[in-house]
């Protein structure tokens, strides 16, 4: 299990290597988070019926969504895509790990 | 008991083919035709513990396919392979923990991370005991002289530096078998010599079993006692380098520098293959005429300044094997 944890941490450090990209990504996520909150805020203010989710919950949900955005399946890791295209992905089988954490 | 035992490995690839042009592309979507490529047609060999074996063959002969199968990342169509009692593609995880692999064409380090972080990552992936890891790491780092590179991201390393780091990375988990796939491609002479020296040391002192594929015959001559030649998916020759030499060519070369220009040599029992200015090159078979007899005959005809006898380059012998088998 140590291996998987180390891989995740390495990935994180890799992303931090490119400082301006990391900073730009961070800013984008914050700005979009604020935009989403503003939209929901407008809904909450203009609606008179009770909502199924409290405002505080919605805001928490939005920030969690922004924080984990890069784990969404449509954000496929570029490096991984290149590896699949070139076939280099097979060499990952040289590591003593399974594809899934089991 | 042999360390690596391979019997009758067969692997065929199915390569999709399509007719040219736009229409061909459409047809290809509906109906695809395949061409089969026989990468391996029954490869068998066995390698003992502590051997250093050269595995050579022209491009597309099946070298990489073999390496991929015995390192556990490719399933063969048929045939068996047992390495230290394990079948690589069935017990992949247990198997890859015991082997180290270096590919000259690609790195197994993380491109954007400093070298030392890649090493630490490998420690966690291979589950190496931390104290043991520190020991191995420090030893390898000082042996390969990479102290100054440890905090540099891999993408900023030169090829020679990267290869040294890659070799260290492949040895951190103390494998007992090392696969080297064209490790010296693109290295400068100094790096090449250092690399060979280290491989020899690993094999000699630590008894590591090494399989080396390369196109650089100097690597083979410098390192390998045993050479396997593969062509068209079959083993063409397997044995000591010297056997290979004598089997395919007993020829020796004598190069003579005469005092006078264009000296005529006749009836010495050797073939003149090149003559230019003061220098002549003679080819002879040591079973027909001994080197000393030949030299005596030549010096009797003309005064000479210098001479030397050499083996034909291994490169030529290999090229001859390839062309005899029409590869």
Give a written overview of the molecule.
The complex is a heterodimer of chains A (102) and B (327). With 102 residues, chain A is mainly α. Chain A has helices at 2-17, 19-46, 55-67, 78-86. With 327 residues, chain B is of the alpha/beta class. Chain B is built from 11 helices and 13 strands. In chain B, the strands form 3 sheets. In chain B, strands 5-6-7-3-8-9 form a 6-stranded mixed sheet, with helices on both faces. Chain B has a 4-stranded antiparallel sheet with strand order 11-12-10-13, with no helix packed on it. In chain B, α7 links the parallel β6 (177-181) and β7. In chain B, α5 runs antiparallel to α6 (159-171). The radius of gyration of chain B is 25 Å and the shape is globular.
Features of this protein?
heterodimer, A: 4 helices, elongated, B: six-stranded mixed β-sheet, four-stranded antiparallel β-sheet, 13 strands, globular
Largest interface: A-B, 19 and 25 residues
Q: Which parts of chain B are unreliable, with pLDDT below 50 for 5 consecutive residues or more?
A: none
Shape call of chain B: globular
* Radius of gyration of chain B, taken over Cα atoms and rounded to an integer in Å: 25 Å
Reported for the largest beta sheet of chain A, the result is: none
- Amount of beta strand of chain A: under 5%
The number of helical runs of chain A is 4
State the major sheet of chain B. 6 strands, mixed
Strand content of chain B: 25-35%
Give the end-to-end Cα distance of chain A, rounded to a whole number of Å: 9 Å
Question: Rounded to an integer, what's the Rg of chain A over CA atoms?
Answer: 19 Å
As an assembly, this protein is: heterodimer
Structural class of chain B comes to: alpha/beta
Q: How would you state the average pLDDT of chain B, rounded?
A: 88
Secondary structure tally, helices of chain B:
11
Strand order of the largest sheet of chain B: 5-6-7-3-8-9
Q: What form of chain A results from the Cα inertia axes?
A: elongated
**Average of per-residue pLDDT values of chain A:** 88
Task: Write down how many β-strands of chain A occur, each being a DSSP E stretch of 2 or more residues.
Answer: 0
Number of strands of chain B: 13
Helical percentage of chain B = 25-40%
């Amino acid at each position: 299990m140590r291996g998987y944890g180390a891989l995740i941490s390495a990935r994180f450090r890799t992303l931090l290597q490119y400082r301006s990209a990391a900073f730009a990504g961070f800013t984008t996520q914050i700005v979009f988070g604020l935009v989403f909150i503003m939209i929901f805020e407008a809904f909450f203010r203009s609606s008179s019926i009770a909502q199924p989710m409290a405002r505080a919950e919605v805001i928490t949900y939005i920030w969690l969504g922004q924080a984990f955005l890069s784990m969404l399946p449509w954000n496929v890791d570029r490096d991984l895509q290149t590896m699949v295209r070139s076939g280099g992905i097979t060499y990952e089988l040289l590591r003593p790990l399974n594809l899934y954490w089991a | 008991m042999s360390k690596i035992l391979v019997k009758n490995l067969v692997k065929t690839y199915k390569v999709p083919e399509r007719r040219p042009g736009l229409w061909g592309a459409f047809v290809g979507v509906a109906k695809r035709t395949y061409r089969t490529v026989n990468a391996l047609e029954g490869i068998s060999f066995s390698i003992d513990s502590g051997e250093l074996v050269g595995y050579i063959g022209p491009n597309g002969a099946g070298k990489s396919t073999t390496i991929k199968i015995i390192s556990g990342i490719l399933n063969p169509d048929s045939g068996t392979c047992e390495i230290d009692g394990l079948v690589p593609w069935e017990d992949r995880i247990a198997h890859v923990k015991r082997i180290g692999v270096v590919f000259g064409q690609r790195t197994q380090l993380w491109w954007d991370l400093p070298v030392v972080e890649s090493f630490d990552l490998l420690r966690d992936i291979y589950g190496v005991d931390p104290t043991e890891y520190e020991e191995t790491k420090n030893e390898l780092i000082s042996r390969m002289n990479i102290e100054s590179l440890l905090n540099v991201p891999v993408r900023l390393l030169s090829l020679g530096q990267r290869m040294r780091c890659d070799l260290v990375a492949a040895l951190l988990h103390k494998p007992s078998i090392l696969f080297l796939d064209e490790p010296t491609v693109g290295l400068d002479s100094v790096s090449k010599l250092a690399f060979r020296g280290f491989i020899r040391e690993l094999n000699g002192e630590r008894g590591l079993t090494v399989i080396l594929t390369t196109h650089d015959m100097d690597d083979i001559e410098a390192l390998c006692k045993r050479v396997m030649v593969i062509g068209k998916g079959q083993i063409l020759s397997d044995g000591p380098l010297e056997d290979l030499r004598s089997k395919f060519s007993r020829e020796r070369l004598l190069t003579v520098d005469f005092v006078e220009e264009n000296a005529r040599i006749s009836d010495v029992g050797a073939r003149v293959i090149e003559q230019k200015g003061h220098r002549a090159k003679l080819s002879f078979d040591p079973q027909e005429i001994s080197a000393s007899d030949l030299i005596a005959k030549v010096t009797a005809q003309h005064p000479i300044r210098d001479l030397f006898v050499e083996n034909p380059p291994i490169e030529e012998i290999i090229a001859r094997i390839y062309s005899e088998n029409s590869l």
